Every structure is written in C-alpha cells, then in structure tokens.
TrEMBL record:
This protein's name: Asparagine--tRNA ligase
Gene giving rise to this polypeptide: asnS
Reactions accelerated catalytically: tRNA(Asn) + L-asparagine + ATP = L-asparaginyl-tRNA(Asn) + AMP + diphosphate + H(+)
The organism of origin for this protein: Schleiferia thermophila
Quaternary structure (record): Homodimer.
Subcellular location: Cytoplasm
GO molecular function: asparagine-tRNA ligase activity; ATP binding; nucleic acid binding
Record keyword Aminoacyl-tRNA synthetase present: yes
C-alpha cells in the first residue's frame, strides 16, 4: 500500500512537472503550437525595442523573431532603459492573436526579468546590416545574427542527416585517429604534433630532429584524412564511415580553403566503382532532401539573402537561386562520363574555341572549377559524375585500370562549386599497391599495416570523401567557406 502511495505521488509530481514545463516555450514552439490564451514563459535576446512597447525577441530556435508587447506605464523607467539590443530577457505573459500584419501571434507581457544587460554604446551587433568580414572578427557573437543562426541550424540538420543516412543503410560509425604518423594523401601539408623542447631540440648525428626522443617515438601529425583507417575497419565490419575533423597546413587564403575542417568518409567492402557512384548519389540526394524538409524556413531566408546579394552582379555572372539549385540536384539523375569524354566535350565547346576558359584544356590536366561548372551548368544541365582519371593526378590508393594510364576514380560535380565528392575504388592488389607506393615516394615501412590488409583476405572495396563545410556552403549558398563553420581556422587566424 505504501509503495502504491509512492507511485501515485510520483505520478502526480510528473504531471505537475509536465504542466509547469509546458508553459515554457521556445520561439519555434510558439509559432508551431500557437497557444492562444495561454500564459507562457519565453527567454531570448532582444533584437529591437521600439517605442518602449514592442520587444522583438529571438532565442536561436528559428530565424523568426517573436513580438512581445508591454504596457510601459506598468513598468519602471529604470527597467525599460535596460532593455537594449543584445539584452537577455525572460518574459512572462499571455499569447494573443496579433492585430499587426508582421506576425500571427504575439505576447502581452506581464513580467520582465533581465538576465543579462547589454550596453548599447558597446554592443557591436546593432540592428543594421553588417558585412560578413566584420562578423568574422566577432565570431563569438555572430550566431546571434539571422544569417549565421540560419547557417548553423542548417549545419546541424545536415550533420544529423548524414548519421541518419548511414545508420539506415547498415553502416557503422567509426572514429579514426586525430593524431597519426601517416599522410593519407602524400601531400605533405601537415601540422606536426610534438612535445619536444623547442629551446633544446634533440638532433641526430646527421643534424636532423631526433623524433625518437619525442612523445610517440616518431614524427606525428594531425590527420589529413581518416580514409586509410576506415579501410581497415571496412575489411572487418563491411560498411563503415568516419565523420570528424581533419587538418591541412596549406597556406591558402581563398574562399574555399580551411586549415581545420570536417570530413565524411565512408568505406565499403565488396563495392565496385559503380556501387560507389550509386551510393554517393543517393547519399547527396538524401541529405539535401532532409535539409529542405527540416530547415525549410532557414533555407527560404538564405535563398532570399543570396538573391539580394546577387542583385549587384551583372546578369550573366549571377548564380542559380539557392532553392532552385538544391532541387536541381534532387530532381535530376546524375550524368556519368569518363574523364577522357569530359576533355573531349571541353575541347569541342564554344567556350574553348572562343578562349573563355582561363585555364588550358588538354588530356592529363586536373580539371579546374570553371571546367567542372561548364560540364554541369552548360553542357549536361544536370549533376555529373566523372570517372577514370589519369593515374598521374590521383592518389596512390586508387585502383589502376587495365590501360595502366587511368584509375577507377570518381568525382561528383554540382552547380555553383564544381566538385563536391571525390572517391574511388581502392587498389586491393598487393603487388600493384606496393609499386604505386614506391612511385609516390612513400615509405613502405610507414604503411606496413595498410599493406597487410592486401596480404590477408583482400577484396574489392571502395569509398568516397565529402568535405562537410563544402557541403554546408553548397546548401546554404554562402560564398565563403569561413562563414559555414563556427570558428574558422585559416593562415594567421586562430582566435576563439
């Protein structure tokens, strides 16, 4: 009987908690549920305060602000003077239909609690248009703006969709190391990791740094890719993917490069190149579709933002509208061509004949963004997958074709940016892989563990890589990759 009383008491407490919690809403929930006549609690940051009466509040849950109306005669002037742009408030009041045209509902405020004041003379985010360059300098505050709130919410939905897609398709999420002794791409643009005393660096007899005295007993660096490690896991688990930070010490100040960025890298045992292409197309379409469904309001806002930005450009230099571009990828089957066919198309194009391409076109080149965009936007008018690239311009781990000139590589090209996905069937033959490692000047000893997987139960396998920030940039329409990651790391910039 006593136990029953405890259960009844606990159930009653849960009901009370549910009722009390129900009265606290986010802005997004208020617009979704429209609890007209209900007394609610709402917290957020002031965007504007007009006529000592209308507070425009935003809590980050949506791009839309919420109008809260107070009767200034009921509140002390000292309190009202503290309500400035940037001030953090908790408001309580009744939800009512709004007589104005700007919003369907509003709050009739009955109490105001100031959680954090904001000096209007010092707060840098005043209600006016700020340049993206200025906002990068105050990256700790820019999530409070409409643009960056929208971008980072879309980023969240894309990340969730990636995990959801792979989980639904039988993949296992694995964590590749951040610190590694290998250079997956062989590019050499690495951030070294060391605990050696910089004032007294040990040297070998030959005068080089003696890494045997370092923490790991060898030279170590931050990873440039989790691919090689993912391949090892695929050889035991079948289908795996990594989704984590990667690093490139590339001294490049462009709108397309970061020193720290996130990569999605699936690896699949028993997949041929054709299987790889099918998966990559399905993957891209799924996550874009998910974003369009879950972040529709933010994407409409960003679509309008891009349209406003494009108005200042000549008509022939304007990019495809954002939502149109996303539906372009969703609704068109991806064209599939070989690299050789792509070069022929470019050479026979009016752009080439009229010398409109900035970079030369010939077999063996690494295609430039302008070439890729021509194929997508002018020739095929659909996303394009290019396969069978020259071996000389691709990484050592890609499977060599029978012609011994090309490899089973594939790149997916989309409008606006060109390449968004790069992948290949991996070289599973031990002798061929060993020969390619030597050709690339990579130490056989440093990749002994990678070669082992080709000795013991090797099989065809494939995978691809997608830079997450490149994806976010594509889906949000932001022109600079530094504006799609909360705290960009670039040459000379490591703030926050």
């Amino acid at each position: 009987m006593a136990a029953l009383k405890v259960l009844i008491s606990f159930a009653g407490l849960k009901n009370k908690l549910a009722l009390s919690m129900k009265s606290t809403y986010s802005v997004a929930e208020l617009y979704e549920k429209k609890p007209i006549g209900e007394f609610v609690t709402l917290s957020g940051w002031v965007r504007t305060f007009r006529s000592n009466r209308f507070i425009s509040l935003n809590d980050g849950s949506t791009v839309s602000n919420f109008q809260c109306v107070l009767d200034y005669e009921k509140f002390d002037d000292t309190l009202l003077k503290k309500i400035n742009t940037g001030t953090c408030l908790t408001l309580k009041g009744k939800i009512a239909e709004s007589p104005g045209k700007g919003q369907p509902i509003e709050m009739l405020v009955e109490s105001v609690e100031i959680l954090g004041e904001s000096d209007p003379e010092k707060y840098p985010l005043q209600p006016k248009k700020h340049s993206l360059e200025f906002l990068r300098e105050i990256a700790h505050l820019r999530p409070r703006t409409s643009t960056f709130g929208a971008v980072f919410r879309v980023r969240h939905h894309l990340a969730y969709a990636i995990h959801d897609f792979f989980n639904r398709n039988g993949f296992f999420y694995i964590h590749s190391p951040i610190i590694t002794a290998s250079d997956a791409e062989g590019a050499g643009e690495l951030f070294n990791v060391s605990t050696l005393d910089k004032k007294n660096i040990p040297l070998t007899e030959g005068g080089e740094v003696d890494f045997s005295k370092d923490f790991f007993g060898k030279e170590a660096n931050l990873t440039v890719s989790g691919q090689l490690e993912a391949e090892l896991l695929a050889m035991g688990l079948g289908k795996v993917y990594t989704f984590g930070p990667t690093f490139r010490a590339e001294n490049s100040n462009t709108t397309r490069h970061l020193a720290e960025f996130w990569m999605i890298e699936p690896e699949m045992a028993f997949y041929q190149l054709s299987d790889n292409m099918e998966l990559a197309e399905e993957f891209l379409k799924y996550i874009i579709s998910y974003a369009l469904e879950k972040a529709s309001e933010d994407l409409r806002f960003l679509d309008q933002r891009l349209a406003d930005e494009e108005k200042s450009k000549p008509t022939d230099q304007r990019s495809m509208p954002l939502l149109e571009k996303l539906h372009f990828v969703l609704e068109n089957p991806f064209a599939r061509i070989t690299y050789t066919d792509a070069i022929d198309i470019l050479l026979n194009s009016s752009y080439h004949r009229k010398k409109k391409f900035q970079f030369p076109v010939e077999w063996g080149i690494d295609l430039q963004s302008e070439h890729e965009r021509y194929l997508v936007e002018k020739h095929f008018k659909t996303p394009v997958i290019i396969t069978d690239y020259p071996a000389a311009i691709k990484a050592f781990y890609m499977r060599l074709n029978e012609d011994e000139k090309t490899v089973r590589a594939m790149d997916i090209l989309v409008p606006g940016i060109g390449e968004i996905v790069g992948g290949s069937q991996r070289e599973e033959r031990y002798d061929v892989l060993l020969q390619k490692i030597k050709q690339f000047g990579i130490s056989e000893h440093s990749l002994w563990w990678y070669l082992d997987t080709r000795k013991f139960g090797t099989c065809p396998h494939s995978g691809f890589g997608l830079g997450f920030e490149r994806l976010v940039q594509f889906v949000t329409g932001m022109s600079n990759i530094r504006d799609v990651i909360p705290f960009p790391r670039t040459p000379g910039n490591c703030e926050f």
